[in-house]
Amino acid sequence: MSKKEEIESPVVAVDAVIFTVIENRLNVLLTKIKYGPYAGSWGVPGGRVRMDESLDEAAKRELLEKTGLKNVYLEQLYSFGRVDRDPRARIISVAYFALVDHNKVKLRTTGKYEDIKWLPLKGTGKLAYDHNEIVDYALFRLKNKIKYTNIFYSLLPEKFTLSELQRIYEITLEKKLDKRNFRKKIFSSGLIKEAGVTVGMPHRPSKLYSFRNRKPVFVEMF
Amino acid sequence: MSKKEEIESPVVAVDAVIFTVIENRLNVLLTKIKYGPYAGSWGVPGGRVRMDESLDEAAKRELLEKTGLKNVYLEQLYSFGRVDRDPRARIISVAYFALVDHNKVKLRTTGKYEDIKWLPLKGTGKLAYDHNEIVDYALFRLKNKIKYTNIFYSLLPEKFTLSELQRIYEITLEKKLDKRNFRKKIFSSGLIKEAGVTVGMPHRPSKLYSFRNRKPVFVEMF
DNA sequence: CCAAAAGTGTTGGGGATACACCCATGA
DNA sequence: TCATGGGTGTATCCCCAACACTTTTGG
Fold first, then answer.
1. How many other C-beta atoms lie within 10 A of the C-beta of residue B82?
2. Which residue in chain A is spatially nearest to B58 when comparing CA positions?
3. A185 SS3 class
4. Are B81 and A56 in contact (CB < 8 Å)?
5. Is the Cβ–Cβ distance between A15 and A97 less than 8 Å?
6. What is the pLDDT along chain A (222 residues), one digit of tens a residue?
7. Chain A positions in Cβ-Cβ contact with residue B54 (cut-off 8 Å)
8. How far off is chain B from A57, nearest CA to CA, in Å?
C-alpha cells in the first residue's frame, strides 16, 4: 500500500474564473488555446496542480501568473469531473472564482496560450471544454454571494463612491436598485467606512468610502 | 502533449459525509480504518475515482457500496487538497454529502475497512485525516441548505407527520421552533402534500404528508 | 376521564419597498 | 445659471415572531 501504485488516476487541474467590470459590463479573463482539439477556442485560464502545492495555492499561482495579482478575493467554486470533459485526457478541474480590479492587472501571456484578454460575459460565445458551464456557475455564485458579503472589496479601487458601488451591484445583479434603500442597506451592514471626498467634479463632491475589511465578511443585506 | 505524460499528479478520491437521524440526534456514517497511519481511527467512507466514472458517479458508487442506497440526496460539498492531508500520498478529496433514512440502510463492510457504523455527530472524537474539517463543513452546509430546500425528503420515510418533520429541523438546527409558525412556513412553501392519516395512536390522529418532489427544490423558508 | 400529541388565529413590531425633492460644484 | 450627479426622509405594507388554548384519540 505504501509503495507507488500503478493504478491510473485522473489528472488534477485548477481553472480560474476571474471577473472584473469594464465599461459597465462584467468581463471574464479568457485565454486562447494553442494546442489540442480546442486550439483557437477561448477558455478560462487553468493548469495542473503540482505535487507540492495545495489546491488553493495552485489557484493563487494561476491568478498570479496571469494577472500579477495577489491578495484578491479567490474562492473555490466547484469541481468538474465528467469523464469526457477533455477529449485528450481524464482531467478533473477544481474551479475557482476571483474578483479583480482590471486597472491593477497587467495581462501576461505564457507559452501555453496564444492570447489572453478580457471578454464581456455576454458574448464570449462557445468556450472550450465545459468552460461555459463553469463560467455560468461562477456567475450564479457571484450573484448570490454579493448579497451577504463584502467581496467587492476586491473589484473596486481602494476608495470609491457609493454610486460606484451601487453601479457594480446593478451590473452584477442585472437590475436597477433604489438609491436611498441601497445606501441604507450598505450603511447598516457596517461593511464600509468613510475615506474622504472627491474633488474637481462638475457637480457636488461625493464622499469616498472604503471597505472596512479586505477579507471576506458575511452579513445579511439584500 | 497527447502522449502519456510522466508528470506526477495527485490522486483523486471522493469522500462521502452521510447523515441520518437516529434517536433524536444527527449521526454520520463512519468506517474504521484498517491500514496506514490512521489504522484504528474512524473516518468517512471514501475511495479513489476511477478513470471511467465522473466524480458524481464515484460518489454514488461509494454511497451504494456502503449503504445499498440509490436516489438519495447527494451533493458535492467541497474539494480538500492540502499537501499533507494524507501522510502517505498526495490525495485530493472531493467531498460529497448525503442524507439518508437509516432504516433503509443495510451497512456493509468492504475489505478495506474493519468496521462501519453510525456515530452521533457530537462525540465522534478525532477523526482520521482532515475528516473533522470535512464533517464540520458538511454540517454547516446542511444547516443552511434546509432553510431553502426540500432535501429532507431523503432523510424521512415516504410519509411523515408535521411533528416528525419539525423534529428533524430542530435537531439539525439545534434549536426549538414554534409549532404554529413552522407549519405556516412549511405549508406556504408548497413543498409537501397530504398523504393520509395516522391510526392507532393514543392521541389525536395526525395527518401524514409527503414531499411533492423527490429531487432538490429551492424555495425561501426560514 | 385522563394523558398525550395534534392542530389552530391573532397581534405587534421591524424591516423592506416605494417614492420626490434639495444640494454643491464646475463650467 | 445651468447641468450634473450627490445626497436625504417618510409612509406603507408585509412578513415574521411571539403567544395559549381546544381537539381527538386510546387506554
1. 18
2. A81
3. helix
4. yes
5. no
6. 444 457 889 999 999 999 999 999 999 999 999 999 999 999 999 999 999 999 999 999 999 999 999 999 999 999 999 999 999 999 999 999 999 999 999 887 777 778 999 999 998 999 999 999 999 999 999 999 999 999 999 999 999 999 999 999 999 999 999 999 999 999 999 999 999 999 999 999 999 999 999 999 998 777
7. 81-83
8. 9
